[in-house]
Design brief:
InterPro entries: OMP/PagP_B-barrel. Keywords: Signal. This is Outer membrane protein beta-barrel domain-containing protein. This protein has 238 residues and is mainly β. The protein is 6% helix and 76% strand. Strands 1, 2, 3, 4, 5, 6, 7, 8, 9, 10 and 11 form an 11-stranded antiparallel beta sheet that branches. Strand 6 and strand 7 form a beta hairpin. The longest helix has 15 residues.
């Protein structure tokens, strides 16, 4: 497991288990993301979407901590300019850890850390080449939550900016990179009346331009990563 992902998970577990934090409620669930991934002129096909856990700690009526982790496999194949067939097989991991300050029942602001890692193998007639991108950095955002009348449904949305930095390794070569991301998510939630279960469906869109600083200059890759997300969670306490 990527060291940065492990550190973020340890931080979240520490907050959840430390007696220094009085937890009002804890929601643990599973998320499924079916994204479209376009990197420059390449559109990767997802093998089975991305899965992972998601958790929310409500520390008070004003403060909450959230964590989500997605892992999935992607593939792409084609023919290069010389007429040779090639294929990519990629494993991608996206993780977010954030703290939110709830201004009122409708609006919140949040900040945290995002980690993205994807490792892939480029297979062609010339042989296999391993590539790895690892990036992490801080982010800020604003969110809204709007109950629908007297029902147990609510509509929510988030808008965030994240500035990542890291490295891109190709074989034995390595290059630094910066990876700014603008993202928004719009969805709805539903909570059962007689059971502590929460369900959500949303659409998330991420847009970025990745600047990779090779020795011969900087190359920019435009990336979009977007698709529907489904969630089911169980709430303890609260």
């Amino acid at each position: 497991m990527n060291k940065k992902l492990l550190i973020l998970m340890i931080v979240f577990v520490f907050i959840a288990s430390s007696p220094a934090f009085a937890i009002e409620s804890f929601t643990l669930g599973l998320k499924y993301w079916y994204p479209t991934w376009e990197l420059e002129d390449t559109e990767y096909d997802t093998v089975a979407g991305m899965f992972g856990p998601a958790a929310t700690l409500v520390l008070s009526e004003r403060v909450a901590v959230t964590m989500s982790l997605f892992v999935g496999q992607f593939e792409y194949s084609g023919t290069d300019y010389s007429g040779y067939d090639f294929s990519f097989e990629s494993t991608r991991t996206d993780m977010d850890l954030a703290g939110a300050f709830i201004i009122n029942q409708y609006v919140n602001v949040f900040g945290g850390i995002k980690v993205i890692n994807f490792s892939e193998t480029n297979s062609s007639s010339a042989g296999d080449v391993d590539q790895d991108l690892s990036a992490y950095g801080p982010g800020l955002g604003v969110g809204g939550n709007f109950p629908i009348g007297e029902t147990r449904f609510s509509v929510y949305g988030t808008l965030a900016y994240t500035y990542l930095f890291g490295s891109f390794d190709v074989g034995d070569d390595s290059a630094d990179l910066i990876y700014p991301i603008i993202s928004f998510e719009l969805g709805c939630t539903y909570s059962l009346e007689n059971m502590p279960l929460v369900f959500a469906a949303s659409y998330r869109y991420q847009q970025s331009s990745i600047d990779v600083e090779f020795d011969g200059g900087t190359i920019t890759w435009d990336e979009t990563f977007s698709g529907p997300i489904l969630y089911a969670g169980y709430r303890f306490g609260g």
